[in-house]
Design goal:
single chain; 153 residues; alpha+beta; two-stranded antiparallel sheet; 20% strand
Length: 153
């Protein structure tokens, strides 16, 4: 039970740091966790925690890229539709590339992933302003790119 309690405390501290601090890197998050007593937290652990929490890097009011939770991103998600953050969509024979406004790629990727295999999307990889979309086997990539364009452009 001690391990579960420690895991719960780590998760709670992690979420509090994301809400209260302006961390722009995983190293900064690890440093903040060390300050509150959690040692031995490596980058891969931070990365997994960020994914589980649905955290993304977003540009704050000062123009700084910082990690935040989806609930903290209401201005991006609510004040403007996702399609207003998509700049271009292009593809070749193997991958679709979606260019977004800074900080919006993970939101767009999450939206695309929600359609998943039934829409012909095997998976996505998101950076800050770019999403790579891989189609499922047998999916016509050009048709899929056009469907994505129809939804986001």
């Amino acid at each position: 039970m001690q391990g579960q309690n420690m895991k719960h405390l780590l998760e709670k501290a992690f979420l509090e740091i994301l809400r209260e601090k302006k961390c722009s890197s995983q190293t900064e998050i690890a440093d903040e966790l060390r300050k509150v007593g959690f040692s031995g937290i490596n980058q891969s652990k931070i990365s997994r925690m960020l994914v589980r929490a649905g955290a993304v890097r977003n540009r704050n009011a000062n123009g700084e890229l910082t990690y935040c939770l989806p609930s903290d991103m209401t201005t991006l998600a609510v004040s403007s539709p996702l399609k207003s953050h998509v700049i271009s969509i292009e593809c070749n024979a193997h991958i679709i590339v979606v260019h977004t406004s800074p900080g919006a790629a993970q939101l767009i990727a999450r939206s695309l992933d929600s359609h998943g295999k039934r829409a012909g999307i095997l998976g996505t990889i998101a950076g800050d302003d770019t999403v790579f979309v891989t189609p499922t086997r047998g999916t016509d990539i050009h048709k899929l790119a056009e469907e994505i364009k129809g939804k986001y452009l």
